[in-house]
Specification:
The structure holds 2 protein chains of 2 kinds.
Chain A: H1 3-10, H2 14-25, H3 28-44, H4 55-73, H5 81-91, H6 99-113, H7 117-128, H8 133-140, H9 144-168
Chain B: H1 5-16, H2 22-31, H3 42-55, H4 64-71, H5 78-110, H6 122-168
Helix pairs in contact in B: 1-2
Classes of the chains: A mainly alpha, B mainly alpha.
Chain lengths: ~170, ~170
């Protein structure tokens, strides 16, 4: 793979990698740092790329591993991304959205941020990025059953909490 | 794309059970992007809108790509190898041209340059040709005379041989 192929094939997936890293880290700058590191690693390991069938899943897996490394090295708590994710959304308000809708977006963001890590990853990969179950297995290095169980729990936890918010006006 | 609420209800039920395919989930995403969603699905619509909104997040820094490309070790980038190859070809061509030039020079010095045809008038050309042919025939005539002298020697030699033969016998 030459530099041109790298720019045309790998670089466009940077936003997917960024969103995934952001889901782990909850901090824009650190997510960007991770994506940069991932892309450099991919370039360095580009000889292997010919043998890899789904290189995007491979990139996502590297993103996951580097994000987890970073979380460990910063000894972050899983709850910390919560407030930061909240801030991230405030930076990019879309003008046509009503404040009511924005509020519900924020509370859903908080609900998902509060999910256990694996559930958070699975629901992000499936419902935001639209990956197939096989790809999610490959990215997260989990078996099909684990992926489905985590997705089921994530979706239903979010649903239940959403119902509660609606019922009690939390 | 408008779908009837029964279809949505059925898809949603399967969605919560994680039994929907990616295409079916795509239909749900599309449906919940609409403005008029029945009250019963208000929260669900908000959830699907949240997923869509999240997908729009991107790296907005213009300099991000350049930063990555700058930190990527440009191991013999394309332009460099292209330049290198071109120079190799150019050097080969240069050597070939110099060699041809030397060979031409050598060939020209050994072979005198051909006479150039300067006669435009056919009559003049004919005269010149005649002159040249005359010169050749003259030379031939001279040569014949000389050759006759050699013949004389030959005849004399023959005669001597004959005499020798007759004395031996």
């Amino acid at each position: 793979m030459n530099l041109e192929a790298f720019q045309n094939r790998v670089m466009p997936s940077k936003n997917k990698l960024y969103r995934f890293a952001l889901r782990f880290l909850g901090n824009e700058d650190e997510a960007k740092d991770v994506v940069q590191e991932v892309l450099i690693r991919v370039w360095k390991g580009r000889e292997q790329m010919n043998e890899i069938q789904n290189w995007e899943a491979w990139c996502m897996r590297i993103t996951k591993n580097l994000s987890l490394d970073r979380i460990r090295s910063l000894s972050r708590k899983t709850t910390q991304p919560l407030e930061e994710a909240y801030e991230v959304r405030q930076h990019e308000p879309t003008p046509y959205e009503t404040t009511e809708l924005q509020e519900s977006m924020q509370s859903i963001g908080n609900l998902i941020a509060a999910l256990p890590e694996k559930q958070r990853q699975v629901i992000h990969l499936r419902d935001v990025e639209g990956y197939s179950y096989n790809e999610i297995c490959e990215i997260l290095e989990l078996d099909m059953n684990q992926v489905k169980v985590n997705l089921f729990r994530a979706r239903n936890a979010v649903r239940e909490k959403l119902m509660k918010i609606n019922a009690y006006g939390l | 794309m408008l779908m009837d609420s029964k279809r949505i209800e059925e898809l949603l039920a399967r969605y919560w059970e994680c039994e929907t395919s990616l295409e079916e989930e795509q239909q749900l995403h599309q449906y919940f992007q609409q403005k008029d969603i029945p009250e019963q699905w208000k929260e669900t619509a908000a959830l699907f809108k949240y997923f869509q909104q999240q997908k729009k997040k991107s790296i907005t820094d213009v300099s991000f790509d350049d930063q990555v490309l700058a930190s990527v070790p440009k191991a013999k980038g394309k332009t460099i190898s292209f330049f290198y190859n071109t120079m190799r070809i150019a050097a080969g061509v240069a050597v070939l041209m110099v060699a041809i030039w030397f060979i031409r020079k050598e060939v020209r010095s050994t072979n005198p340059p051909e006479t150039v045809d300067t006669y435009e008038d056919p009559k003049l050309a004919f005269e010149e040709t005649k002159k040249a042919l005359m010169m050749i025939s003259k030379s031939f005539g001279k040569a014949e005379e000389q050759a006759k002298k050699i013949n004389l020697f030959n005849e004399a030699q023959d005669e001597i041989r004959k005499k020798e033969k007759s004395t031996k016998m």
